[in-house]
Amino acid sequence: MKKFITYIAIFCLLSCSSDDQDKQNSISIQLNFDQISEYANDYTFSDFKIKIYSTKEDYFNETNPVFSGDFDTTGAISISENIAAKSYYVDIYSTDKVLSNWEPSDLDVDSSNIIVFYPSNGGTDFFQTVYITDTIKVMGTWSFSTYDYTNSDNPEKTIKTSLSINKDFTVQSHESYNDIDLVLNFELESYTSLNITNIEPDDQSYPALYTNRNALSLQVDELGFLYFYNYAGENTIYSKN
């Protein structure tokens, strides 16, 4: 009787061990277009790619992906290759980089539920829904075009060159004054608002008598131009490089 019980115990142990080995860590995603209905006729799910990164730095720099692939025609994908029991940073984007899961409201990337994913280890039945947006269109380098509005309180103006809006939610305005190169550094607070963090080489180099710290804003119009209500209280217009 004891031998029989021992055999049963060994069989159960081996069986359970086998079941555990069969369970793989996986990330399963289902795309959703509900927030981009205006693009419904321009894109299919097959137009989207996915890259998965182990670290936030790799995600921001787009280096060393542990997985790179495409979504199927239903907008679904399940990935288990090279997936361990840890968090991952997931980058989803259309091939033309107009639509993605990049969202400036998720400024704390580590707590994001649309960029950071935790694998499941019970198979691939659970798919996490990711809502695609067009907020990525603000990202990139923009060249200064003209003024929409100038601030008469600041007669001295800098020469605007470019505006860089980065994947890590930082923004740099490249300007100059009296042959001094200036960089104004900002952080995005949302898709349309930002705050200034510092000016290089120093605040005293910037000529504005009256500054706009509390109403800094960005907006991309229907023609693709970027309007930036800036630190000097000017409404400036930029075009995409």
Protein traits:
2 domains, mainly beta, elongated, disordered N terminus, Lipocalin, Immunoglobulin-like
| CATH class descriptor of the largest domain | Mainly Beta
Mean of all residue-level pLDDT scores? 87
Find the structural class using helix and strand composition.
mainly beta
* Radius of gyration, in angstroms, nearest whole number: 25 Å
Number of domains: 2
In terms of quaternary structure, the protein is single chain
Number of strands: 15
Biggest sheet layout: 8 strands, antiparallel
Which parts are unreliable, with pLDDT below 50 for 5 consecutive residues or more?
1-22
**Kindly, what is the distance between the CA atoms of the first and last residues, rounded to a whole number of angstroms?**
80 Å
Secondary structure layout plus pairing:
Layout: H1 2-22, E1 27-32, E2 48-53, H2 56-61, E3 67-70, E4 76-79, E5 88-94, E6 116-117, E7 128-131, E8 140-149, E9 159-165, E10 170-177, E11 180-188, E12 194-200, E13 217-220, E14 226-229, E15 235-240
Describe the protein in words:
The protein is mainly beta and 241 residues long. It has two domains: 23-136, Immunoglobulin-like (Sandwich); 139-240, Lipocalin (Beta Barrel). Helix content is 11%, strand content 37%. It is built from two helices and 15 strands. The strands form three sheets. An eight-stranded antiparallel β-sheet has the order 12-11-10-9-8-15-14-13, with no helix packed on it. Strands 3-2-5-6 form a four-stranded antiparallel β-sheet.
Can I get a quick summary?
By secondary structure, this protein is mainly β.
